[in-house]
From TrEMBL:
Record bears the keyword Transcription: no
The protein's name in its UniProt record: LPS export ABC transporter periplasmic protein LptC
UniProt signal peptide: 1-23
Keyword field: Signal
Pfam families linked: LptC
Domain of life per record: Bacteria
Amino acid sequence: MTKGFHHIFLSAALCIGSFFFLASCENDIKEVQNLGKGKENIEEGRDIESFLSIGGMVKARLKAPYMIRRDKDSAATIFPNSLFVTFYNELVPIPESFLKAKYGKYFVDDSKVFLRDSVVFYNIKGDTMRTSELWWDQKTEELYTDKPIWFFQKVPFSLIKGRGFRTKQDFSSYHFDQVYDSQTSVADSTLPSQ
């Protein structure tokens, strides 16, 4: 009888102990939800120079006087005091186009850069586009906006004002959504005098 009582007592003790162990493992739902609400990591940098390369080829160089990197919900890098980007030719590592703005924000997950305030995009031929806001998509290597634009082409001379613009980052091709005003010089088509 003592042996049976001891066995029942031991079994009951194990059951009660297991109950308390399992009960102590229960998580408070609020604690679990707050796990992802940690402090935001913020990094700052000055005199930034960063390179974008694909397949070992340098595609772009970014320079900025100040940078803030945040990784709270979606990682972003902010350039609040201006930035300057040089785009390089794919075949020969020489600059072919340039981009500058007073403010930029790089969305890491999307590989896109939002630029605003005095945005200027130009190439080595002197073609220039100005706007208030511009997106740079690093995956498609395109720049685009739905804001008013001012476009100047040096040769042949063209001055175009419109809204909405899309171009490759090498400025090799571009498209206007709407054109409000344009001025273009046409080569003289008269026959030479004899």
